[in-house]
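Components:
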Amino acid sequence: MSVGIDSIGLIPEAGGIARVIGHQAGYVGVVADQLGSKVVGAVGASTGAVNGLAGLGDTSADGLISTGLTVAGFVPGLGQVAAGLSVFHDVYLTARAIGQCH
Amino acid sequence: MPLAKEIKNDVKNDIKAAKKIWLPWWGVLCLGIVSLPLYWLFDHFGRLNLALPTFNCIAVLGFVIAVKRNLRRHAWFWGIMAILATLHVPLILFVPWTTKWVPALAIAAIDSGDLIVMLTILSVVGKFMEGQKTAAPDSGH
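Structure:
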């Protein structure tokens, strides 16, 4: 779940998944990219908002900081880097947990 | 307040330039693959909580250098970058970072705040250095 939410930041604005979403809606080329990018952005914003709202109940320092920053804007390229690092951090934690089970 | 306005415009333009920077998918993949053994290294020393803040700080410093690459020939720019990098060391070491999951979006917002502060510092110092250059008397060459 956390890997899925983190990886939203990795989706580029043009081509790839954004274009596929645009094609599904019956658009082609740049228009498909633009529509797909809007959908991806909306999903990212909504998951961010869900996380932010989930954090509202958390009155610890971490929770409050997380909630505050979720509603702040960010530079997309940095979001991409943060998402990449986070995903691989989660992958490492998962691999370590599986290793400990064995 | 023309100087304050100039600095504000500078920072706005820098943020605009920063928003246009995107890594290719293979760049993000390489970054992740390189980070995996480093996560293991941090974990080995029992400081996995410092791994993400360290990598994100390095990424933000890299971003600042990419945005302000037109200043790369100025010695003062590298001096300021060295000072900013040094200031990040106590920030990483002494803030009680969590090992719990924090959404990447929240990490990106912290990174963005850091980026904007650094761009503002560089803009202020840049204006100061420009002012010194124009105020300096001709050396007579």
